[in-house]
Amino acid sequence: MKITYNAPVVLTFTAICTIVLVVSDIMHGTLIRDFFLCQPNMDLADPVTYLRIFSHAAGHKDWAHLIGNFSFILLLGPILEEKYGSKRLVLMMIVAAGITGLLNTFLFPSGLLGASGIVFMFIILGSFTNFKTGEIPLTFILVILLFLTKEVVAAFQQDSISQFAHIMGGICGSIFGFRNANVKS
User: Fold this and answer.
1) Are 119 and 143 in contact (CB under 8 A)?
2) Going from the N-terminus, what domains does the chain have, and what CATH number goes with each?
3) Phi, psi angles (nearest 5°) of residue 61
4) Which side of the chain, N or C, has fewer Cβ within a 10 Å radius?
5) Prediction pTM value
C-alpha cells in the first residue's frame, strides 16, 4: 500500500493554512493581522484589502481554531472533492470566502478570520451527496434546522465567533448543492 494525495484541493488548503499559522506564530501574529484578517471598514484604496476578502479563510487565531475547522474539512472535503471535482470545489470555496469576507467588511464592526464559512458550506454540501432532482433530502432539512437553531442561539452570546460567516457558508452550500445536484466529477 502507498499513501496517496487523494484530495488535492483539501490537502493543499490544509497545508497552506497550517503554514500560515506556523509562520504567523514565528512572527508573533503579524502575518495574520496584516494579510489574513478581513477587517471592518477596510481601505478600498489599499490593494491588500482585496486579498484579505478571500485570504481570511486561510488565517486562524490559534491551533485550536485551525484543528476545529480542519477536523471537518478533512472529514468532508475528500467526499465533496470526489463528487464535485477539484476545480468546482475550489471555486465554491473561493466564492464562499469572498461572499463572507465582503459582507463582513460592509456589515459588521468586527474582523473575520478562519475557514468556518467553508466548514459550514461543506457540512451543508455533505447532505447533498445522494441528492436527486425533484427531491429534497431529509438530511438537508435536518442539518439546516439544527444548524440554524445552533447559530441563532449562539448569535446572542458574547464570543469571538462569527455566526454570520457560518450562516453565509451554509447558504452558499445550499445554493451550490441545489445548483450542482446531479454533478459527477
Assistant:
1) no
2) 8-179 (1.20.1540.10)
3) -65, -45
4) N
5) 0.89
Per the DSSP assignment, residues forming a β-bridge with 112 are 38
The one-letter amino acid at 13:
F
Q: Which of 25, 45, 28, 48 is nearest to 36 (CA)?
A: 48
